[in-house]
Design a protein that fits this description.
Largest interface: A-B, 70 and 69 residues
Number of helices of chain A: 5
Strand content of chain A: 35-45%
Strand order of the largest sheet of chain B: 1-3-4-7-6
Shape of chain A: globular
CATH topology of the largest domain in chain A: Porin
Number of helices of chain B: 9
Oligomer: heterodimer
CATH architecture of the largest domain in chain A: Beta Barrel
CATH class of the largest domain in chain A: Mainly Beta
Radius of gyration of chain A: 36 Å
Largest sheet of chain A: 16 strands, antiparallel, barrel
Radius of gyration of chain B: 22 Å
Helix content of chain B: 25-40%
Number of strands of chain B: 11
Order of helices and strands of chain A: HHEEEHHEEHEEEEEEEEEEEEE
Chain lengths: 514, 243
């Protein structure tokens, strides 16, 4: 800059001098006989002296190699503005499976951010069960009827570091989810009823360390099996077994630690495997590692162990659930503008048992993870699923194809069909879940979504499921004539449920999230 | 060419030249003690130590992003994420009525001044200009000050120490091929209810010389993103690098 000033000054003085010279020469030409006035000559001398001085000054910096002239007008920095502080805010992850696609929040306030969800469906089952009852899934309850599957109201209170979130659940899930948890059988206070209308409820405190630390306690979502408990967030309505049959929520304590804006560590200390209470002597422990290195990639690793999640036995359950998602094409200018897929793999087992835990109860058989025999069967789980999604016309339409499989000897993660009102607590003699019993199943889905706004999804889906043993509701249904009869864990004389090895369904759903 | 017209031309050229010579900023031609108050004010408004920035507004975080990121109070708490951009900066249309002509339609300031306040000539100019907003500096660190930041949303009832930690984490001096220089501390001074001056201190233990051709200072303040270059070879005062 200084050099520029010097150069400008030199030029200006030179122009002035030229003008003066030109004027004085002209004067001289006009008045050749008379000498220039003394004051003009003095001015010329002074200006010449000034030019000499400036030229001297100019020479020195010109010789210095380090004095390269910087641009007069700084160009804007090339770095694009990005929020590298808030974890996972460096990119847009609304494309992901299990993440809501909303960019805007309707009920966002300074102290409270409200949330409203609506999930209603109509399921057309090719088996046409006479009792309109679906089994073996947590994303559907009745067929051939309009069903309010899930209605959620709630939100987040937030003030400085204090956090509190609650989300209620009404509709079919208020009975369908708690019935898969046998832990309320132990003890009093009817905790299944106490919690059944609450899908999330926790308080916590946020600490500004690194990129954030949260310490929270209550009922929170597990995200084991990738898919969200809320269908609006998912690429398909019916998730495969590794999601549908694994926990949606935990009741306990967790810490979320964000060492960087791309990584989260989340250890848990919980009552058990999607259980309101604790089955036996030990709490479950586990945790999640979430890593999103770029906007295109997502990796999540969930681990669980130590929990004793079977009534009246000391069997210890361990489970590993790992998923990745990859967005490999994104071109907003095209009609089909985005493609991505998700991949999930689960493995787990149970071990131990064979001892009486509660006097007067029959101890569960001892099991091992692998290499079992007739007396001590192997009890484990292996499963996977893969989904691929396409987006069209600026997120107005979406299509998903995917499916998965599971192998679960011992059936400890097989959802018990609600035969004659059976629950996880009661069990049923018509579909037993004992060590050594095999269960293999597959499914696939084809989904089409119309998303007129970011808050609404109209969904139509075809899903087919199959198993190696009769499991799905057949035309005769799973309800005795005249309704449930007696103890759900007992035999109803003269009646048997109609279970089939295959199920094909159309699902029509309206999903709203505000 | 007659004498009169020649004299007229000469008289025209002379004053233009002298006027242009006078356009040389005072700090390049005068010794410090000779600066007037106007010279100092001009220096504080336009010199290699001072940059005027039009900040960028980052896209707002959705409610999900805040929960996913583990902090529902990010941005100061409960800002909507695009339905009303004014909420992002905490500046509402009602604030703009009347005095707030310094904001654009989205509530973003038209300009924010960023000044290398630890530099000796800047501090001298602040004294000369009787600038009461000048931060108190001990000279131990480089200090870059961001003036007139609309922080109402991010600072409203928020612990300033907590906010300073976030600001410290989200600012740096970058230079190509070198490790980013992070602030050692940040001080926030509130000006009224919704404006603030933010001073970023960088350790002088990291030496900056005229060999460092271009430095990029960038900072995230709430959802406002600032980025600007400084050129050490330009920041010479009486032949000496002053930072």
């Amino acid at each position: 800059m200084r050099k520029t000033f010097q150069r400008n000054s030199l030029g200006i003085v030179f122009i002035s001098l030229l003008g003066l010279n030109w004027g004085t020469q002209a004067l001289s030409a006009q008045n050749t006989d008379s000498p220039p006035p003394a004051d003009v000559k003095k001015q010329i001398d002074e200006l010449k002296k000034r030019i000499d001085q400036l030229e001297q000054q100019m020479k020195a910096p010109a010789a210095a190699p380090a004095a390269a002239t910087p641009p007069a007008t700084p160009a804007p920095p090339a770095t694009p503005p990005v929020d590298n502080d808030t974890p996972f805010a460096f990119g847009d992850f609304t494309w992901m499976n299990a993440v809501p696609r909303n960019h805007d929040s309707v009920f966002d306030g300074k102290y409270f951010t409200g949330e409203f969800r609506w999930d209603s469906n109509y399921i057309y089952d090719y088996n046409h069960p006479i009792d309109h009852s679906l089994g073996g899934t947590t994303e559907g309850t009745r067929t051939g009827e309009f069903v309010l599957q899930q209605l959620n109201l709630g939100g987040d209170f937030h003030w400085e570091g204090v956090q509190a979130r609650f989300l209620s659940q009404f509709g079919a899930v208020a009975t369908a989810t708690p019935r898969n948890d046998a832990s309320p059988t132990i003890g009093q206070w009817d905790i299944a009823d106490a919690y059944r209308y609450l899908t999330e409820g926790y308080g916590g405190y946020h600490i500004n360390y690194k990129h954030g630390v949260n310490i929270q306690a209550g009922i929170f979502m597990s995200y084991i099996g990738l898919f969200s408990y809320y269908s609006f967030d998912n690429w398909s309505y019916q998730p495969s077994y590794v999601s549908s049959n694994t926990p949606w929520f935990f009741n306990g304590f967790r810490v979320q630690y964000f060492p960087t804006n791309k990584l989260k560590f989340e250890p848990w200390l919980i009552n058990g495997w999607q259980s309101y209470g604790k089955f036996n002597g030990r709490q479950g422990v586990g945790g999640q590692i979430l890593w999103r290195p770029t906007e295109k990639w997502d990796f999540v690793f969930n681990s669980y162990t130590a929990g004793e999640d079977t009534l009246y036995t000391h069997r210890t359950r361990s489970h590993e659930d790992d998923s990745m998602e990859f967005k490999y094409y994104d071109n907003p200018k095209k009609l089909m503008h985005r493609m991505a897929f998700s991949l999930t793999f689960d493995i787990g087992c149970e071990t131990g048992g064979g001892q009486t835990v509660v006097v007067g109860t029959t101890p569960g058989q001892k099991v091992v993870c692998t290499h079992g025999n007739a007396n001590t069967p192997a009890q484990n789980f292996v499963g996977g699923m893969m989904y691929h999604r396409w987006w069209f016309d600026r997120d107005k339409f979406g299509a998903t194809v995917g499916g998965g499989w599971m192998n679960n000897p011992g059936r400890y993660l097989v959802l018990l069909p609600p035969i004659d009102g059976a629950t996880a607590s009661s069990g049923t003699p018509y579909f037993t879940e004992n060590p050594g019993q095999q269960f293999k199943a597959y499914d696939f889905q084809t989904t089409f979504d119309w998303m007129p706004t970011q808050f609404v999804t109209w969904r139509v889906e075809f899903t087919q499921r199959g198993s190696d043993v009769p499991y799905f509701t057949g035309p005769g249904g799973i309800t005795p004539p005249g309704g449930n009869n007696g103890n759900p864990g007992s035999i109803t004389p003269g009646w048997t449920p109609d279970l089939r090895k295959q199920e094909r369904r159309w699902i029509f759903a309206l999903l709203v999230r505000l | 060419m007659n004498l009169k017209s020649i004299a007229e031309k000469t008289l025209l050229v002379f004053p233009v030249g002298l006027l242009l010579m006078a356009a040389d900023p005072a700090w390049t031609t005068k010794e410090l003690p000779a600066w007037t108050e106007d010279d100092a004010k001009n220096f504080l408004a336009e010199s290699p130590w001072v940059k005027t920035i039009k900040p960028a507004l980052l896209p707002g975080l959705s409610e999900w992003q805040r929960r996913d990121g583990g902090n529902m109070t990010a941005e100061g708490g409960g800002k909507s994420s695009g339905l009303d951009l004014n909420d992002l900066t905490g500046i509402h249309p009602k604030d703009r009525d009347g005095a707030r002509t310094d904001l654009d339609a989205n509530g973003i300031p038209h300009r924010i001044i960023v000044r290398w306040d630890s530099a000796m000539p800047v501090r001298a100019a602040q004294i000369k200009a009787k600038n009461e907003d000048a931060p108190d500096l001990d000279g131990e660190d480089y200090a870059i000050t961001v003036y007139d930041v609309p922080l109402k949303g991010a600072m409203y009832n928020v612990d300033l120490k907590v906010l300073a930690t976030a600001l410290k984490r989200n600012a740096q001096i970058k230079e190509e091929g070198k490790k980013d220089l992070k602030p050692s501390r940040v001080i926030i001074r509130q000006n009224g209810s919704s404006m603030a001056t933010i001073i970023y201190f960088f350790p002088r233990s990291v030496r900056i010389t005229t060999d460092d051709k271009r430095l990029e200072f960038d900072a995230l303040i709430g959802r406002l993103y600032l980025a600007q270059y400084f050129y050490p070879p330009e920041m010479l005062f009486q032949g000496k690098l002053e930072l």
